[in-house]
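Write out the 3D structure for:
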Amino acid sequence: MTFEIPSDLNPQLMALAWMIGRWEGSGKGSWPGHGEFEYAQQVEFSTNGGPYLHYLSQMFEVDGDGNPVRPLMMETGFWRPQMDASVEVVLTNPDGWSEVWAGKIEGAKIELVTDAVMRTKTAETEYTGGQRLYGQVEGDLLWTFDRATTNHQLQPYLWARLQRA
């Protein structure tokens, strides 16, 4: 699918312009005690003219044919590119945590590490930090998420390949 940069795009968003739009696809995950799993994912990056992108990601458990059967995870937040090619990302998750990420934009590759993770008292997972990598490869959005918790050191958790919808 062809992508055009919106003519009224805030100039501060040019480094992230390739991400704008809706992406869909499938991914895999692995976590101690849960084993390996597959999921479907929808991601949307949108702008309202401000110097940030709004981000919404939804993941779904899939049946044997790859069809979504129930919600698995969701997160939303804001991507704030800076003039020095850095980016700040603020995300929140309904399972009881919020994150502040910091990273670097290098063309169509973005590396992020957590600067802070805040959890509610009843958070589903004692998540403590992570790293993410986003990139555009052959027109697709590829991403990975390595996660650490109070019980597990940083390790691969989620990875996916998404196509522009």
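Strands lie at 21-31, 35-46, 53-62, 68-81, 86-93, 97-106, 109-119, 127-137, 140-149, 155-164.
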